[in-house]
């Protein structure tokens, strides 16, 4: 399998549930990202990992908890979410964080609905 | 606040027509990237423009970066249904490396 994969593709959860999103990249990259995409709004960068170390947390609520066990895998743990957290969650990877012209490769996203 | 404003937000045209979409800012960007996102997929990079005044062509798509590096445009000639998607621009303002994203132009090409 190539590129960036995400599972599940769709997720419906209640506000009291705990779930996790998974991302895997097969590109040999060292940087991985979580984005939130809501309709008619710019992509919101949530977290960045560079060589497995979290380098950025853009004021994301603690109900979102990232985990990066190695350079190929990235998780987003979810708990006690709110309906306004419903969105498309995109994972991306790039060769390295810190080069503005680096291409980011995106997964297909997880469509999350919080009831 | 450094913003990238994309216009129009939505465009629906017939196959064969030409169109231009815009990505504008009040800030200078060291480069700008254009992505296309098809339904059910993540964004895919189309092109990166780096130099002020640069023009890049990708088949029927022509990308321009303004001389002042604050504006960019994407022109599609003889649009086809396969061009349908959300077109996003993104770039690092100034000397920053973090990307700022536009909200996108949703393009529908009707057969």
Q: Would you write up a description of this structure?
A:
The complex is a heterodimer of chains A (115) and B (111). Chain A has 115 residues and is an all-beta fold. Chain A has strands spanning 4-7, 10-13, 18-25, 31-37, 44-50, 53-57, 64-70, 73-79, 87-94, 105-106, 110-114. In chain A, strands 2, 4, 5, 6, 9, 10 and 11 form a 7-stranded mixed β-sheet that branches. Chain A has a 4-stranded antiparallel β-sheet with strand order 1-3-8-7, with no helix packed on it. In chain A, strand 7 and strand 8 (73-79) form a beta hairpin. The radius of gyration of chain A is 13 Å and the shape is globular. The mean pLDDT of chain A is 92. By secondary structure, chain B is mainly β. Chain B contains no helices and 11 strands. In chain B, the strands form 2 sheets. In chain B, strands 2, 4, 5, 9, 10 and 11 form a 6-stranded mixed β-sheet that branches. In chain B, strands 1-3-8-7-6 form a 5-stranded antiparallel β-sheet, with no helix packed on it. Classes of the chains: A mainly beta (115), B mainly beta (111). The interface between A and B is medium-sized, with 21 and 26 residues.
Attribute tags:
heterodimer; A: 115 residues; mainly beta; seven-stranded mixed beta sheet; B: 111 residues; six-stranded mixed beta sheet; five-stranded antiparallel beta sheet; 11 strands; 50% strand
Short note summarizing the structure:
Chain A is an all-beta fold.
Architecture blueprint of SSEs:
The complex is a heterodimer of chains A (115) and B (111).
Chain A lengths: L3 E4 L2 E4 L4 E8 L5 E7 L6 E7 L2 E5 L6 E7 L2 E7 L7 E8 L10 E2 L3 E5 L1
Chain B lengths: L4 E3 L2 E5 L4 E6 L7 E6 L6 E6 L5 E4 L2 E5 L5 E6 L8 E7 L8 E2 L3 E6 L1
Parallel strand pairs in B: 2-11
Antiparallel strand pairs in B: 1-3, 3-8, 4-5, 4-9, 6-7, 7-8, 9-10, 9-11
């Amino acid at each position: 399998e190539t590129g960036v994969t995400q599972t599940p593709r769709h997720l419906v959860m209640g506000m009291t549930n705990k779930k996790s999103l998974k991302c895997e990249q097969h590109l040999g990259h060292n940087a991985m990202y979580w984005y939130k995409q809501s309709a008619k709004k710019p992509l919101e960068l949530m977290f960045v990992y560079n060589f497995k170390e979290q380098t950025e947390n853009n004021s994301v609520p603690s109900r979102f908890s990232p985990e990066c066990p190695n350079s190929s895998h990235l998780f987003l743990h979810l708990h006690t979410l709110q309906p306004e957290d419903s969105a498309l969650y995109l994972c991306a990877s790039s060769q390295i964080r810190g080069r503005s012209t680096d291409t980011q490769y995106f997964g297909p996203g997880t469509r999350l609905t919080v009831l | 606040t450094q913003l990238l404003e994309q216009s129009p937000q939505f465009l629906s045209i017939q196959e064969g027509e030409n169109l231009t979409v815009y990505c504008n800012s009040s800030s200078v960007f060291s480069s700008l990237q254009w992505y296309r996102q098809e339904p059910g997929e993540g964004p895919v990079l189309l092109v990166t423009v780096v130099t002020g005044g640069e023009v890049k062509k990708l088949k029927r798509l022509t990308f321009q970066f303004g001389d002042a590096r604050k504006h960019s445009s994407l022109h599609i000639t003889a649009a086809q249904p396969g061009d349908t998607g959300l077109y996003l621009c993104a770039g690092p303002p100034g000397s920053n490396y973090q990307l700022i994203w536009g909200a996108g132009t949703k393009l529908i090409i009707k057969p």
